[in-house]
Amino acid sequence: MLLAGYYYVRHKVQLNRYARRAWATFTKNGLTGREKTPLLAGYSVHGIDVSAYQGRIDWAVVARNRVRFAFIKASEGATLRDPRFARNWREARKAGVLCGAYHYFQPNRDGQVQANLFARTVPLAPGDLPPVLDVEAANFHDVAVMRREVARWLRLVEAHYGVRPILYSNHSFYQRHLAGHFDDYPLWLAHYEVARPKMARSKWIIWQHSDEAYVPGIRGVVDFNVFQGNFADLQALRMPAPPTAPKLPATARTRRVK
């Protein structure tokens, strides 16, 4: 009993989170999809990230509840495509939600193969948010190899879309394995059960502050995020339109031969 009590006190925050997530999963069928978590105070731009786990989403209802942006899971590892990506991508954009797509990185798979899968899956266009690489899986043996393959994915995807990707990770994994190696990439930071991230504001642009929020239009829990800045700042991150060819001056146009 004493050992159990000591373990609970030491890990109670995480254990309580696991219990809440298990309860949310168990009671999901009893939810209506109208439950609502209050927006985090102090931020004006709120967003979510989703995958097939959320099931069918009513994006019109989501958009009416001040969700300004969404990152949608597209792919994972070397072969897995999220089965709901195409529908979520289409319906979220139709509802006016600013969209981006993410790839869940498997550190034991080749970075180029994973980059190719993402590029074949995601039709990013001008006006969309940059691609995201989710790096948090700890099933690797050599951190240097993991970093090399992460760098390969980021480099290839940037070359493919012409925009620098965003790097996503949780606070402890980032500090332990990624900090100092990918500082040139915008950081989307997951950090829960804290009043603010334990990292300088200059280091991150998006904060995933909860993975157990409720948003009307989604039946069950969803990740909740805030953007550090206003909506115009978020719009400035979007993929730019391709440059248009300059018009020739009238004197340089081909004249009709008489």
Automatic annotation (TrEMBL):
<keyword id="KW-0378">Hydrolase</keyword>
<comment type="similarity">
    <text>Belongs to the glycosyl hydrolase 25 family.</text>
</comment>
<dbReference type="InterPro" id="IPR002053">
    <property type="entry name" value="Glyco_hydro_25"/>
</dbReference>
<dbReference type="InterPro" id="IPR008270">
    <property type="entry name" value="Glyco_hydro_25_AS"/>
</dbReference>
<keyword id="KW-0326">Glycosidase</keyword>
<protein>
    <recommendedName>
        <fullName>Lysozyme</fullName>
        <ecNumber>3.2.1.17</ecNumber>
    </recommendedName>
</protein>
<dbReference type="InterPro" id="IPR017853">
    <property type="entry name" value="GH"/>
</dbReference>
<dbReference type="Pfam" id="PF01183">
    <property type="entry name" value="Glyco_hydro_25"/>
</dbReference>
<dbReference type="InterPro" id="IPR018077">
    <property type="entry name" value="Glyco_hydro_fam25_subgr"/>
</dbReference>
